[in-house]
Structure formats: structure tokens, C-alpha cells
Write a structure and sequence with these properties.
heterodimer, A: mainly alpha, two-stranded antiparallel ribbon, 15 helices, B: alpha/beta, 6-stranded mixed beta sheet, 4-stranded antiparallel beta sheet, 10 strands, globular
């Protein structure tokens, strides 16, 4: 399928999903779906750098929080409309991604992963001490009283924005994967030196990959302050974002854009169900157990397993 | 035309490379002309370091490297490949998650496309054509991680050829291969010369060296001790000493 066809299809589906969701009377659905969609974006974005390019990023929370806190800043400073927040947060996180891209010059593997983790800690400390955006106390973000498009509640708007952003993230991820850039990134993942010696401009591609990955993670966070109506650093920098955005592609499969979606839907839904039926404290435990199970039984994720099965049948 | 042929394609002058206190390359001069076949060997240290310096994966401390009349200076490796300077690795480094065919598409898309116009379908065709040349056509859709050592070496060579180079540096493509496999690869490399590609081979396999080369250069302990036609090099006292001791 051509990328343009896929994009048209993805956005058409998104609009259809938004329209169909209006029929659902239960507000909880929107809240739960918002979370799952947010994880689809995070997993898809993480996979661009982690799965396609082979650089494991442990600092997803830093990008997510950059998006979230740039929205808080715009809210405090300008009472900017939601669209402006989304665009600004995405760009800010993209810039952070570019900076992280330069880290790949000197660091690989575990060292890169730890550097990104450190980045999250540094940013966390920075935000905790930045009074203007609430500091350690956190900040209240009041949802606007006027809701556009005749939607009944603000969560409907956030949910709709999330559906569209998910479609955008998937379109971008797929376009990268099927392009020449995608093959270059895969070459870097397999063997960076050999890629360089095959003519691949590795630094440029890594910067591109890190920037896009970071920008999309930030995008997922831009609507988060409105979603919670109250934001504090430990929520925005939660370990759960870092862990989930790695676990989901790992469980779904890292070689294609479908994997993170499967992983995020699966893990995201399970976590939502557990949160309601058992307890919210079980969330990360379940991620951990599933992760161990998959790493042992299907190291290439669900899609890897499907691919192997297909290869065998041929 | 004759003038052009005499113009060196690669001109290495005074290249020096040190690792800490150890001098791996000491003031090396080397000239390769278009379409020339040069073998560096048969023994001595520093050959792979020289390859790395020429390809740009290592930085030389002294001296200069001119390719096609252009000082490579601090050009990154991918820039050099795009200019037409391709190399293979001593230990094959295939892109393991890709099929054999896709392995060749990488240099075709990223290097060859810099000087040849190639559409999407032409890239697949060119890749397939190369696989036929090296005898891997029937494995085109196999994952490269599943190849045998011999096939991996062929793939390594094909991948360097896919960059459509003017100069191909082959780093011990034949180590560990059987006599008939060595012949296969020799035919392949000789074919390159007919296509106007100069070849530098780093090689231990003596038979390959004598059969293949028009010129042989010998490095010992980071110094070039001989450079000339194969027979004169074999007769060279220093080379004999380096090989058999005094």
C-alpha cells in the first residue's frame, strides 16, 4: 500500500472512530481509551529510535513530560488553545530528541540507555524546582468551559485529539519504515560501521530518528495536563512511561509499525482492566511478568512470532 | 584518455597511524591507477589499518589521501563510499535482520544512487544481477544471518560492488576458502577490472596473490618494504627475510 493511501485510510478510520464513539454513553470508556491511545503513540514513537534504529531509550518519560510541561507553561503564560499546545510541545520534545541524537555520537548500547535515563532525572529535578509551572506542588489546569464541535465533555475533545494524533504517529512510523530512510535505520541497527561503509549517513539518520521519536513522545504528553486537570512532576515523569514504552514494542514486535500497536493495545487494555477489577498497584507488576514471559518465549515479540510462522509455511 | 589513465586514482602519501606508542603505519606511500589490480600483502602488520585509514573508519595522524584528485581529509566513511571508494570487511558484517537482497539495496540506495540514476525497480534488478554474479541468486530472500561463512564473504563482496565503486578494497575476502572457492572469487574480482574498477586486495592466500595481481606491495611492521610486479617482489631480499627470517 502506498503511504498516501495508508494516510488517507488512517485518518478516515480515525474520524470514523471518533464519530462512532459519540454513541458510547459511558465516560469511563473515553478515559480508558485515552490512556491506551497515549500508549500506542508512546510505543510507536519509542520504536522509531529503539526498534528501527536500535538505540534503547530509557528516558521516554522525559519526552512525555516535556510535552506535558510545555503545555502547562503555555497555559500559565498565554492560556493558549489546545492546538497551539500540541504543536509547541511536539516541537519542544523534538528539540530534546535532537540533543539526545547527538549523544549517539559517543554512546551506544547500555551507555546510551543510561544516559537517557539520566536525562529524565535531570529534567525531573529541573521541573521540581521550577516554581512557575508548579514545582513539586504541581499545578492545576482548568479545562475550558466552552467545548468546541458541540462535544458534551472535555474528555471527548481530548480523546478525539488523541485518536487523530495516534493516526498521525502511525502514518509517520509506517512512512519511515517503508522508505529508504527505514532501510538505512535498519542497517544502523544491524551494524553501524558496515552501514556507514555502505554509504549510509549514519549521524544524520540517527539525528532524524531521535528527533522524530522524541517529538511524537512529546506529542503524546501535550494533552496530559488537561486530562488529569492537575499535574505534578512525579506523575509526568512516572517510571510507567519509560517501562511501558519499551515493554509494548518488545511484546508486540519491534521490526514493524504494527508491533508497538499490538503491544500497546494488549498491555494498555490489560492494565486498564486490572486497574478497575483488581487494583492499580498491580499495573507495573503485570507489565514485568509479561515482559519476562515474552523475552523468554518470543524474543521477537508477537509479530516476530507471526513472521517466523509465515516463513515456515512458505 | 591515456593521460587520464595515468592520473592516479588513489594517492596515499606519507600516511602515519599510531595507537598510543605503537606505530601501526609509518609514512606509507601508495599509488593506485584506474583499473589497476594491486595486492597488498602477503604478510606483515598494518594492512587492515591502512584499509581503515583509506576508507575513513580510522583517522590517520600524518600524511594525506587523495582519491580521484580530491583530498579526502576528514571526510566520513559514507562520503568516501559515495565518491566511489568501497571496502569489504575482513570478518563479514552483513545486516543480519535483512534478506540477502535487501543487504545489497542499502549501498545501491545510499551510495550508487549518488552517481547513477536508479529507480525503485532498477535497484531490485541491480541487486539481483549482483547476486547472480556472486552465485547467491537462489538465496536472495533468505535472511543473511543464516548464510554460511563462504556465502557471507560473497555477500560482503557483492555489497561492496553494489556501491558501484571506482576502487574496491577487499580485505582478506579469501581467508579460509577452499581452492575452488578462491577461484570463484578471483574470477569475480577480475571481472570488476573489465568494468573499469580498480581493486586493492589484502590477501594472504599466495596463489591468489600471484595469479591475480599486476602489482604487489608488501607491508611489514607498518612500513612498505616492496612495491612492484609480483615476480620482482618475490625475489626481493627483504621480502624473503620478512617471510623466512634471517
Amino acid at each position: 500500500m502506498k503511504n498516501r493511501t495508508f494516510a488517507a485510510l488512517a485518518f478516515a478510520t480515525a474520524v470514523a472512530v471518533i464519530a462512532a464513539s459519540r454513541l458510547i454513553p459511558n465516560d469511563y470508556f473515553f478515559s480508558a481509551a485515552y490512556t491506551v491511545l497515549q500508549f500506542i503513540i508512546l510505543a510507536t514513537a519509542w520504536n522509531i529510535l529503539g526498534g528501527y534504529t536500535g538505540y534503547v531509550n530509557f528516558g521516554s518519560a522525559a519526552f512525555f513530560a516535556t510535552g506535558a510541561y510545555s503545555s502547562v507553561f503555555l497555559y500559565k503564560a498565554l492560556h493558549a488553545p489546545l492546538v497551539v499546545m500540541i504543536v509547541t510541545g511536539t516541537l519542544a520534545a523534538g528539540l530534546l530528541g535532537l540533543a539526545v541524537g547527538y549523544l549517539t555520537l559517543r554512546m551506544r548500547g547500555v551507555f546510551f540507555a543510561i544516559a537517557t535515563l539520566a536525562l529524565a532525572v535531570v529534567l525531573y529535578t529541573f521541573v521540581v524546582n521550577w516554581d512557575y509551572v508548579g514545582g513539586a506542588r504541581g499545578a492545576y489546569i482548568i479545562q475550558p468551559r466552552v467545548i468546541p464541535f458541540g462535544l458534551p465533555r472535555y474528555i471527548h475533545l481530548l480523546y478525539s485529539a488523541m485518536v487523530l494524533m495516534t493516526a498521525l504517529a502511525l502514518v509517520i512510523a509506517r512512512a519511515i519504515e517503508t522508505s529508504t530512510i527505514g532501510r538505512g535505520l535498519a542497517a544502523i541497527r544491524d551494524d553501524e560501521l558496515a552501514a556507514e561503509c555502505a554509504g549510509v549517513p549514519t549521524l544524520r539518520l540517527k539525528l532524524f530518528s531521535a528527533t522524530v521519536s522524541g517529538a511524537l513522545m512529546g506529542m503524546a504528553g501535550t494533552t496530559f495536563p488537561y486530562y488529569l486537570a492537575y499535574i505534578e512532576p512525579s506523575a509526568a515523569f512516572s517510571l510507567s512511561y519509560a517501562v511501558n514504552s519499551i515493554a509494548m514494542p518488545l511484546i508486540g514486535g519491534m521490526m514493524s509499525w504494527v508491533g508497538p500497536v499490538i503491544g500497546a493495545v494488549l498491555l494498555g487494555s490489560v492494565q486498564q482492566i486490572v486497574q478497575v477489577t483488581i487494583s492499580s498497584a498491580w499495573n507495573l507488576l503485570i507489565v514485568g511478568v509479561l515482559l519476562v514471559a515474552f523475552v523468554t518465549l518470543a524474543p521477537n515479540g508477537i509479530m516476530g512470532w507471526v513472521d517466523a510462522w509465515r516463513r515456515k509455511r512458505r | 584518455m591515456a593521460d587520464q589513465l595515468n592520473q592516479p586514482l588513489l594517492q596515499v602519501s606519507g600516511v602515519t597511524k599510531r595507537f598510543g606508542g605503537f606505530t601501526a603505519l609509518d609514512n606509507i606511500d601508495l599509488i593506485v591507477r584506474p583499473c589497476e589490480r594491486l595486492v597488498i600483502g602477503p604478510n606483515g602488520s598494518g594492512k587492515s589499518t591502512l584499509v581503515n585509514c583509506i576508507a575513513g573508519t580510522l583517522r590517520n595522524e600524518g600524511g594525506s589521501i587523495l582519491f580521484d584528485g580530491r583530498d579526502l581529509g576528514s571526510d566520513p566513511p559514507h562520503g568516501r563510499v559515495r565518491l566511489g571508494l568501497a571496502r569489504t570487511f575482513q570478518i563479514p558484517r552483513p545486516f543480519v535482520s535483512m534478506s540477502v537482497l535487501d543487504n545489497l539495496c542499502v549501498p545501491l540506495e545510499y551510495a550508487a544512487r549518488q552517481h547513477i540514476k536508479l529507480g525503485k525497480s532498477e535497484i531490485a534488478e541491480a541487486a539481483m544481477h549482483l547476486l547472480e554474479q556472486v552465485g547467491l541468486a537462489d538465496k536472495s530472500h533468505a535472511l543473511s544471518r543464516g548464510l554460511t561463512q563462504v556465502d557471507m564473504r560473497k555477500l560482503e563482496l557483492a555489497r561492496a560492488m553494489a556501491a558501484k565503486p571506482k576502487l574496491l578494497i577487499s580485505d582478506e575476502a579469501m581467508a579460509g576458502l577452499s581452492a575452488s572457492e578462491v577461484d570463484d572469487i578471483l574470477v569475480l574480482v577480475s571481472g570488476l577490472q573489465q568494468q573499469g574498477v580498480a581493486v586493492i586486495m589484502i590477501e594472504h592466500v599466495m596463489r591468489a596473490v600471484m595469479k591475480f595481481s599486476e602489482r604487489v606491495a608488501v607491508l611489514v611492521a607498518g612500513k612498505k618494504i616492496a612495491d612492484g610486479d609480483p615476480q620482482s617482489v618475490v625475489d626481493n631480499d627483504q621480502v624473503i627475510k620478512a617471510y623466512l627470517g634471517e
